């Protein structure tokens, strides 16, 4: 392998440590946060250089698609567990319609796919027909894209917890947020969306 700069070595060591701790690679923003830089352009340049020198390779279509050299990309079979609406909440449909094999490094904690229906998240690059990779968890941070149950019906939105309500925000300027005020309804987080996959054929 060709020599790399100290900054590139820092990026590589961070990725390796992140994978060892979490079981999957970091996003560009997580790498940028570690490097204490505001944008991801510099991170992409470091990754390009590391890829050209044979230290890693990247998979398109995934925000965590980094595979370190020397680590075999084993695959896991992940169920497509039904449909979630990126729009108004609708009854959750759970029906294993397919299974897809993806890199094990992207999978952790019972991850599953849901097929997206609707266009309320188009400005977050989530389109009708996409497969959302969901990591089950009962909590979320502000700005996380989540699958949430609102009074028993499922929706895919960006999550915000405010002082007296929860806001499920669409990423489509033509659509209104779902506001659930304390004591007026129930919101349960099904999981966090950790990846979006889109067939190109």
UniProtKB/TrEMBL annotation:
It is an enzyme of class 3 (hydrolase). Residues 28-48 bind DNA. It comes from the Bacteria. Homodimer. InterPro entries: LexA, LexA-like, LexA/Signal_pep-like_sf, LexA_DNA-bd_dom, LexA_repressor, Peptidase_S24_LexA, Peptidase_S24_S26A/B/C, WH-like_DNA-bd_sf. Keywords: Autocatalytic cleavage, DNA damage, DNA repair, DNA replication, DNA-binding, Hydrolase, Repressor, SOS response, Transcription, Transcription regulation. The gene is lexA1. Residues 79-194 form the Peptidase S24/S26A/S26B/S26C domain. Its EC number is 3.4.21.88. It comes from Geobacter hydrogenophilus. GO terms for biological process: DNA repair; DNA replication; negative regulation of DNA-templated transcription; proteolysis; SOS response. One of its GO terms (molecular function) is DNA binding. Pfam families: LexA_DNA_bind, Peptidase_S24. This is LexA repressor.
């Amino acid at each position: 392998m060709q020599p790399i700069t100290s900054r590139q070595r820092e990026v590589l060591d961070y990725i390796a440590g992140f994978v060892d701790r979490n079981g999957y690679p970091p996003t560009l923003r997580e790498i940028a946060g570690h490097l204490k830089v505001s944008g991801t352009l510099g991170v992409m340049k470091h990754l390009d250089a590391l890829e050209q020198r044979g230290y890693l390779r990247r998979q398109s279509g995934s925000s965590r698609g980094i595979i370190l050299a020397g680590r075999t990309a084993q695959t896991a079979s992940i169920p497509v567990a039904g449909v979630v609406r990126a729009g108004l909440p609708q009854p959750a449909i759970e029906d294993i319609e397919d299974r897809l094999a993806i890199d094990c490094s992207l999978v952790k904690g019972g991850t599953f796919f849901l097929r997206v229906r609707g266009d309320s998240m188009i400005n977050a690059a989530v389109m009708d027909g996409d497969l959302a990779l969901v990591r089950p968890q009962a909590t979320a941070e502000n700005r996380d894209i989540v699958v949430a149950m609102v009074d028993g019906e499922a929706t895919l939105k960006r999550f915000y917890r405010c002082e007296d309500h929860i806001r499920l925000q669409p990423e489509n300027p033509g659509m209104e947020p779902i506001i659930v005020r304390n004591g007026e309804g129930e919101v349960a987080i099904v999981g966090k969306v950790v990846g979006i996959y889109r067939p190109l054929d």
